[in-house]
Fold:
Amino acid sequence: MVEVLTRGLGPLEPLLADPEVDEILVSGLAPIWVERHGRLVRTDAHFADDAQLREAIERLLQPVGRRVDEAQPLCDTRLPDGSCVNVVLPPLALDGPAIAIRRFRPRGFSAQELVAGGAWTPAALDLLRAAVRGRLNILVCGATGSGKTTTLAALLGLLPSGERVVTIEDTAELRLELEHAVRLETRPANVEGRGEVTIRTLVRNALRMRPDRIVVGEVRGAEALDMLSAMATGHDGSLGTIHAGSAAGAIERLETLALMAGVGLPHAAVRGQVRAAIDLVVVVRRDPDGARRLIEIGEVPEPASEEGAVRPLYALRDGRPVVRAPLRERVVQGLVLGLR
Structure:
């Protein structure tokens, strides 16, 4: 299958066939970079000329019926094998056509495997297992490549059996082994500018699908308000990820995105809605050595609380886990329920 899909892709062929390569990054005719074991490495591979590179892009996108050209120089899609690909053409890409490919792995890491590999500690697993089973709403944050999707998938692996889960993603990356899951994916507009289906539309539709939990792969825009509304109106135990470097930064960014919905809510009302909806924020980080680690689990203050900061329930201090008792009543009740 890999041979069929990669035929005619020039220097990309051996890289796509290499099981140790997680990401492939092309910038014009410069040497191609790849990620192996969490580290970016420059290879000797490169495209011979612009014609070869553009032909490879065309062949790469052909199986999914997508194309890029001067009129539409951006493309973000999923390949038949599940890998995610992003293409940018000049003049947007100044140094020649750019390609970013994130390889799809048929199976993700379980929470237990993340503990065994050192990404999580046993204390973090115990706390998160109770939080998931106690139906607390959890937001995972981190920088690009920090392991947000891996963490989210591992959390979903802690769900009790039989629950109906609806996942919503821009480009499907979650690898699920759930009994009852519905996977939804956005759709871009066609060449005539019609037919677009956004994450916001899918979140609203998910409410009509009788979900026990709603999962948003990454919150990036105005759909934040719809996700918060779902969490605060009976869909407890929902999860999502957001791009932020800290728990406090994640909450601030979520507030900003919710304000983008344009419904005229004052900032104070949106802040209260965020606090009412989100219980815990999980922070993940990629270290300089390429290792990805869960470094903090923060408790979001009560809506009426004057406390401004997210309070760490769990944190790594000099490599050792420090766990504190929760203060928020809903979090206490959820953890107690999850421990039964």
Q: What stands out?
A: The chain is about 30% helix and 25% strand.
